[in-house]
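Take one record.
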Amino acid sequence: MLPAERDFYLAQSVHSDPGSAEKLAGLPQGPDELALLVRHLLIHREETGRFGCALPESRYRSEAETRYVDDILDIVLRLDDAPLTAPRRPLDRFAGTCRDFALLHCALLRHSGTPARIRCGYATYFAEGFHDDHWLTEYWHPERGWILSDPQLVPDVRIESPYELDFDPLDVPRDRFLVAGEGWRRCRSGEADPKTFGVSVLGLMGLWMVRANVVRDLAALNRAEVLPWDSWGVGDAGRDGEKGTDEAGLALLDEAARATVHADFDEVRALYRDTPSLRVPETVTSYQSYDGECEIRLRGDPQDGES
Protein backbone atom coordinates (compact mmCIF):
# COMPACT_ATOMS: atom_id res chain seq x y z
CA MET A 1 0.00 0.00 0.00
CA LEU A 2 1.41 3.37 -1.02
CA PRO A 3 1.51 6.19 1.56
CA ALA A 4 -1.23 8.25 -0.10
CA GLU A 5 -3.71 5.35 0.03
CA ARG A 6 -2.72 4.47 3.59
CA ASP A 7 -3.15 8.04 4.77
CA PHE A 8 -6.51 8.33 3.04
CA TYR A 9 -7.99 5.25 4.71
CA LEU A 10 -6.50 6.11 8.08
CA ALA A 11 -8.22 9.49 8.10
CA GLN A 12 -11.74 9.75 9.47
CA SER A 13 -14.52 10.96 7.20
CA VAL A 14 -17.23 13.28 8.42
CA HIS A 15 -19.44 10.18 8.73
CA SER A 16 -16.90 8.05 10.62
CA ASP A 17 -15.47 10.73 12.92
CA PRO A 18 -16.20 9.49 16.47
CA GLY A 19 -15.93 12.95 18.01
CA SER A 20 -14.36 13.35 21.43
CA ALA A 21 -11.42 11.00 21.97
CA GLU A 22 -12.31 10.79 25.66
CA LYS A 23 -15.13 8.32 25.07
CA LEU A 24 -12.76 6.02 23.15
CA ALA A 25 -10.33 5.64 26.05
CA GLY A 26 -9.29 2.09 26.85
CA LEU A 27 -10.59 0.46 23.67
CA PRO A 28 -8.85 -2.61 22.21
CA GLN A 29 -6.63 -2.19 19.16
CA GLY A 30 -6.98 -5.34 17.06
CA PRO A 31 -9.51 -5.65 14.21
CA ASP A 32 -11.17 -8.76 15.67
CA GLU A 33 -11.41 -7.31 19.18
CA LEU A 34 -12.88 -4.10 17.78
CA ALA A 35 -15.43 -6.09 15.77
CA LEU A 36 -16.54 -7.85 18.97
CA LEU A 37 -16.82 -4.48 20.71
CA VAL A 38 -19.02 -3.17 17.88
CA ARG A 39 -21.21 -6.26 18.18
CA HIS A 40 -21.78 -5.44 21.84
CA LEU A 41 -22.64 -1.79 21.15
CA LEU A 42 -25.07 -2.26 18.24
CA ILE A 43 -28.03 -4.42 17.34
CA HIS A 44 -29.62 -4.65 13.90
CA ARG A 45 -33.17 -3.37 14.11
CA GLU A 46 -34.40 -6.46 12.23
CA GLU A 47 -32.62 -9.02 14.43
CA THR A 48 -34.11 -8.23 17.85
CA GLY A 49 -36.18 -11.41 17.63
CA ARG A 50 -32.95 -13.40 17.62
CA PHE A 51 -32.24 -11.87 21.02
CA GLY A 52 -35.73 -12.55 22.35
CA CYS A 53 -36.69 -8.88 22.62
CA ALA A 54 -38.49 -6.14 20.70
CA LEU A 55 -37.67 -2.49 20.15
CA PRO A 56 -40.09 0.31 20.91
CA GLU A 57 -41.61 1.49 17.63
CA SER A 58 -40.04 4.93 17.95
CA ARG A 59 -36.54 3.49 18.17
CA TYR A 60 -37.17 0.96 15.41
CA ARG A 61 -38.18 3.72 13.03
CA SER A 62 -35.67 6.42 13.93
CA GLU A 63 -32.26 5.18 15.06
CA ALA A 64 -31.22 3.71 11.72
CA GLU A 65 -31.57 7.17 10.19
CA THR A 66 -28.54 8.29 12.24
CA ARG A 67 -25.76 9.12 9.78
CA TYR A 68 -22.68 9.95 11.81
CA VAL A 69 -20.62 7.84 14.20
CA ASP A 70 -20.37 10.58 16.82
CA ASP A 71 -24.19 10.66 16.95
CA ILE A 72 -24.36 6.84 17.09
CA LEU A 73 -21.99 6.78 20.07
CA ASP A 74 -23.96 9.54 21.76
CA ILE A 75 -27.08 7.37 21.52
CA VAL A 76 -25.18 4.34 22.85
CA LEU A 77 -24.00 6.33 25.87
CA ARG A 78 -27.44 7.84 26.42
CA LEU A 79 -28.91 4.33 26.60
CA ASP A 80 -26.19 3.20 29.02
CA ASP A 81 -23.55 5.65 30.25
CA ALA A 82 -21.06 2.92 31.16
CA PRO A 83 -17.71 2.88 29.30
CA LEU A 84 -17.97 1.55 25.76
CA THR A 85 -16.09 -1.58 26.81
CA ALA A 86 -18.77 -2.52 29.37
CA PRO A 87 -21.28 -5.29 28.48
CA ARG A 88 -24.68 -4.03 27.34
CA ARG A 89 -28.10 -5.63 27.22
CA PRO A 90 -29.49 -5.95 23.66
CA LEU A 91 -32.01 -3.13 24.13
CA ASP A 92 -29.28 -0.86 25.50
CA ARG A 93 -27.51 -0.98 22.14
CA PHE A 94 -27.90 1.34 19.16
CA ALA A 95 -30.50 -0.13 16.79
CA GLY A 96 -29.26 0.33 13.24
CA THR A 97 -28.43 -1.62 10.11
CA CYS A 98 -25.45 -3.49 8.68
CA ARG A 99 -24.09 -0.16 7.44
CA ASP A 100 -23.80 1.08 11.02
CA PHE A 101 -21.90 -2.02 12.17
CA ALA A 102 -19.47 -1.60 9.26
CA LEU A 103 -19.08 2.15 9.73
CA LEU A 104 -18.48 2.03 13.49
CA HIS A 105 -15.95 -0.80 13.04
CA CYS A 106 -14.27 1.23 10.29
CA ALA A 107 -14.15 4.32 12.54
CA LEU A 108 -12.56 2.40 15.42
CA LEU A 109 -10.04 0.77 13.09
CA ARG A 110 -9.00 4.15 11.72
CA HIS A 111 -8.77 5.48 15.27
CA SER A 112 -6.51 2.57 16.27
CA GLY A 113 -4.16 3.03 13.28
CA THR A 114 -5.51 0.43 10.82
CA PRO A 115 -6.52 1.64 7.34
CA ALA A 116 -10.17 0.78 6.77
CA ARG A 117 -13.18 1.44 4.57
CA ILE A 118 -16.69 0.06 4.19
CA ARG A 119 -18.00 -1.91 1.22
CA CYS A 120 -21.52 -2.07 -0.19
CA GLY A 121 -22.54 -5.32 -1.79
CA TYR A 122 -24.38 -8.61 -1.46
CA ALA A 123 -24.09 -11.50 1.00
CA THR A 124 -24.96 -15.02 -0.05
CA TYR A 125 -25.20 -16.32 3.53
CA PHE A 126 -28.58 -15.02 4.72
CA ALA A 127 -31.00 -16.67 2.28
CA GLU A 128 -30.12 -19.64 0.08
CA GLY A 129 -29.93 -18.72 -3.59
CA PHE A 130 -30.26 -15.00 -2.88
CA HIS A 131 -27.83 -12.08 -2.75
CA ASP A 132 -28.89 -9.92 0.17
CA ASP A 133 -27.99 -6.24 0.31
CA HIS A 134 -25.29 -6.05 2.98
CA TRP A 135 -22.39 -3.82 4.02
CA LEU A 136 -19.07 -4.97 5.48
CA THR A 137 -15.86 -3.52 6.83
CA GLU A 138 -12.70 -3.92 4.73
CA TYR A 139 -9.40 -3.31 6.50
CA TRP A 140 -5.76 -3.51 5.51
CA HIS A 141 -3.61 -6.37 6.80
CA PRO A 142 0.13 -5.79 6.24
CA GLU A 143 0.67 -9.37 5.05
CA ARG A 144 -2.66 -10.34 3.50
CA GLY A 145 -3.90 -7.09 2.01
CA TRP A 146 -7.59 -6.11 2.24
CA ILE A 147 -9.73 -8.35 4.48
CA LEU A 148 -13.52 -8.37 4.71
CA SER A 149 -15.04 -8.43 8.19
CA ASP A 150 -18.71 -8.72 9.19
CA PRO A 151 -19.01 -7.37 12.76
CA GLN A 152 -22.79 -7.87 12.77
CA LEU A 153 -22.32 -11.64 12.66
CA VAL A 154 -19.71 -11.98 15.41
CA PRO A 155 -21.07 -14.58 17.89
CA ASP A 156 -22.86 -13.01 20.85
CA VAL A 157 -23.53 -14.91 24.09
CA ARG A 158 -26.86 -13.11 24.49
CA ILE A 159 -28.29 -14.17 21.15
CA GLU A 160 -30.95 -16.87 21.37
CA SER A 161 -30.98 -17.75 17.66
CA PRO A 162 -27.39 -17.54 16.35
CA TYR A 163 -26.53 -17.13 12.69
CA GLU A 164 -25.42 -20.39 11.10
CA LEU A 165 -22.20 -19.79 9.15
CA ASP A 166 -19.66 -22.10 7.58
CA PHE A 167 -16.89 -19.47 7.67
CA ASP A 168 -15.31 -16.98 10.06
CA PRO A 169 -17.32 -13.72 9.93
CA LEU A 170 -14.10 -11.85 10.75
CA ASP A 171 -12.57 -13.12 7.50
CA VAL A 172 -15.41 -13.29 4.97
CA PRO A 173 -14.52 -15.20 1.77
CA ARG A 174 -14.81 -13.13 -1.40
CA ASP A 175 -17.20 -15.63 -2.94
CA ARG A 176 -19.61 -15.23 0.00
CA PHE A 177 -19.82 -11.46 -0.32
CA LEU A 178 -19.89 -9.79 -3.71
CA VAL A 179 -19.09 -6.10 -3.86
CA ALA A 180 -21.83 -4.27 -5.72
CA GLY A 181 -19.75 -3.86 -8.87
CA GLU A 182 -19.28 -7.61 -9.17
CA GLY A 183 -23.01 -8.12 -8.74
CA TRP A 184 -23.66 -5.56 -11.46
CA ARG A 185 -21.18 -7.24 -13.80
CA ARG A 186 -22.75 -10.66 -13.31
CA CYS A 187 -26.25 -9.36 -13.86
CA ARG A 188 -25.28 -7.40 -16.97
CA SER A 189 -23.44 -10.39 -18.47
CA GLY A 190 -26.26 -12.82 -17.79
CA GLU A 191 -24.24 -14.85 -15.27
CA ALA A 192 -26.70 -13.97 -12.51
CA ASP A 193 -30.41 -13.20 -12.30
CA PRO A 194 -31.08 -9.63 -11.09
CA LYS A 195 -34.13 -10.98 -9.27
CA THR A 196 -31.76 -12.73 -6.85
CA PHE A 197 -30.27 -9.39 -5.71
CA GLY A 198 -31.98 -7.17 -3.16
CA VAL A 199 -33.48 -7.35 0.31
CA SER A 200 -35.11 -10.74 0.76
CA VAL A 201 -37.08 -9.92 3.93
CA LEU A 202 -38.68 -6.90 2.22
CA GLY A 203 -39.28 -8.55 -1.15
CA LEU A 204 -37.25 -5.86 -2.92
CA MET A 205 -35.06 -7.05 -5.76
CA GLY A 206 -33.82 -6.25 -9.23
CA LEU A 207 -31.07 -4.58 -11.22
CA TRP A 208 -32.19 -1.13 -10.06
CA MET A 209 -31.08 -1.98 -6.52
CA VAL A 210 -27.66 -3.17 -7.71
CA ARG A 211 -27.33 0.02 -9.73
CA ALA A 212 -27.77 2.18 -6.64
CA ASN A 213 -25.29 0.11 -4.64
CA VAL A 214 -22.59 0.41 -7.31
CA VAL A 215 -22.70 4.18 -6.86
CA ARG A 216 -22.81 3.91 -3.05
CA ASP A 217 -19.82 1.57 -3.04
CA LEU A 218 -17.80 3.99 -5.16
CA ALA A 219 -18.73 6.72 -2.69
CA ALA A 220 -17.71 4.53 0.26
CA LEU A 221 -14.33 3.87 -1.36
CA ASN A 222 -13.98 7.65 -1.37
CA ARG A 223 -14.91 7.97 2.32
CA ALA A 224 -18.46 9.18 1.64
CA GLU A 225 -20.34 6.58 3.71
CA VAL A 226 -24.01 7.41 3.14
CA LEU A 227 -27.11 5.55 4.32
CA PRO A 228 -28.26 2.46 2.38
CA TRP A 229 -31.33 4.30 1.04
CA ASP A 230 -29.57 7.48 -0.09
CA SER A 231 -29.53 8.04 -3.85
CA TRP A 232 -28.23 10.58 -6.35
CA GLY A 233 -27.12 10.96 -9.95
CA VAL A 234 -26.94 7.90 -12.16
CA GLY A 235 -27.58 5.64 -9.17
CA ASP A 236 -30.98 7.09 -8.35
CA ALA A 237 -33.54 4.59 -9.61
CA GLY A 238 -36.42 5.92 -7.49
CA ARG A 239 -38.22 4.16 -4.65
CA ASP A 240 -39.26 1.12 -6.69
CA GLY A 241 -36.94 1.34 -9.66
CA GLU A 242 -39.26 3.50 -11.73
CA LYS A 243 -36.42 5.75 -12.91
CA GLY A 244 -34.53 4.27 -15.82
CA THR A 245 -31.22 5.22 -17.39
CA ASP A 246 -29.96 5.58 -20.94
CA GLU A 247 -27.09 3.82 -22.69
CA ALA A 248 -24.62 6.47 -21.55
CA GLY A 249 -25.74 5.94 -17.97
CA LEU A 250 -25.38 2.17 -18.27
CA ALA A 251 -21.89 2.59 -19.71
CA LEU A 252 -20.94 4.84 -16.80
CA LEU A 253 -22.28 2.28 -14.32
CA ASP A 254 -20.26 -0.41 -16.11
CA GLU A 255 -17.16 1.73 -15.66
CA ALA A 256 -17.91 2.38 -11.99
CA ALA A 257 -18.54 -1.33 -11.41
CA ARG A 258 -15.24 -2.31 -12.98
CA ALA A 259 -13.35 0.33 -11.01
CA THR A 260 -14.85 -0.69 -7.68
CA VAL A 261 -14.23 -4.39 -8.24
CA HIS A 262 -10.53 -3.73 -8.85
CA ALA A 263 -10.55 -0.91 -6.26
CA ASP A 264 -7.38 0.69 -7.60
CA PHE A 265 -6.98 3.71 -5.34
CA ASP A 266 -6.01 6.27 -7.97
CA GLU A 267 -8.72 5.09 -10.36
CA VAL A 268 -11.60 5.17 -7.86
CA ARG A 269 -10.47 8.58 -6.59
CA ALA A 270 -10.24 10.05 -10.10
CA LEU A 271 -13.52 8.56 -11.29
CA TYR A 272 -15.31 9.92 -8.24
CA ARG A 273 -13.77 13.38 -8.43
CA ASP A 274 -14.27 13.81 -12.16
CA THR A 275 -17.80 12.45 -12.63
CA PRO A 276 -20.59 14.63 -11.22
CA SER A 277 -23.32 12.00 -11.66
CA LEU A 278 -21.31 9.54 -9.53
CA ARG A 279 -20.07 11.95 -6.90
CA VAL A 280 -22.16 12.52 -3.75
CA PRO A 281 -23.78 15.96 -4.02
CA GLU A 282 -24.39 18.32 -1.14
CA THR A 283 -28.01 17.13 -1.02
CA VAL A 284 -29.12 13.52 -1.60
CA THR A 285 -32.54 11.94 -2.03
CA SER A 286 -33.22 9.62 0.88
CA TYR A 287 -35.90 6.95 0.41
CA GLN A 288 -36.55 6.41 4.10
CA SER A 289 -38.39 3.33 5.23
CA TYR A 290 -41.03 5.13 7.30
CA ASP A 291 -40.87 8.86 6.67
CA GLY A 292 -40.94 8.64 2.90
CA GLU A 293 -38.82 10.37 0.28
CA CYS A 294 -36.97 13.47 1.43
CA GLU A 295 -34.01 15.63 0.51
CA ILE A 296 -31.10 15.56 2.99
CA ARG A 297 -28.27 18.07 3.07
CA LEU A 298 -25.07 16.34 4.17
CA ARG A 299 -22.28 17.61 6.35
CA GLY A 300 -18.85 18.26 4.89
CA ASP A 301 -17.60 18.48 1.33
CA PRO A 302 -18.74 15.49 -0.76
CA GLN A 303 -16.62 16.60 -3.71
CA ASP A 304 -13.56 15.88 -1.60
CA GLY A 305 -14.77 12.41 -0.64
CA GLU A 306 -15.46 13.54 2.90
CA SER A 307 -19.22 14.06 3.01
In short: The chain has a mean pLDDT of 94.
